[in-house]
Specification:
Layout (H helix, E strand, L loop, with lengths): L1 H17 L3 E7 L15 E3 L8 E12 L4 H15 L3 E10 L12 E11 L1
Parallel strand pairs: 2-4
Antiparallel strand pairs: 1-3, 3-5, 4-5
């Protein structure tokens, strides 16, 4: 019985680790814009080097995702958090691998942290 419970526990843990999951965080600097307007699909993801319009940085969004979560899913999560803040675009999105504090620490990335600046047009 104990062996079956151990195997079941390992299977559940493995399933949770391999399933796609993401957590997001945000830090808002300015609340001047109405966050209820529009849809997160309208939030753009841009490189600041290519932005020709004036803008104001109103915050930072971050998403921590498992290593194989997928770029489209991560960008959708960042855009959703940006829209909640009232952002119209996310610029300078960066990815940094994260390593777990386990036996395998340092060998394989366990996930990735994505971050970007949330902006509104002036």
């Amino acid at each position: 019985m104990h062996k079956k419970m151990t195997v079941l526990g390992l299977c559940l843990t493995t399933g949770l680790l391999l399933s796609g999951c993401i957590s997001t965080q945000k830090m808002q600097f300015d609340r001047a814009f109405d966050p209820t307007a529009g849809d997160s699909r309208n939030v753009e993801v841009l490189d600041s080097a290519n932005v020709k319009r004036s803008y104001k940085v109103i915050g930072i969004v971050e998403a921590d995702a498992v290593a194989d979560y997928g770029l489209n899913n991560v960008l959708s999560a960042l855009k959703l958090e940006a829209k909640k803040m009232g952002g119209q675009a996310v610029i300078d999105v960066q990815r940094v691998p994260m390593y777990s504090k386990t036996f395998w620490d340092g060998l394989f990335p366990s996930g990735q942290r994505w971050s970007g600046k949330v902006i509104t047009w002036e």
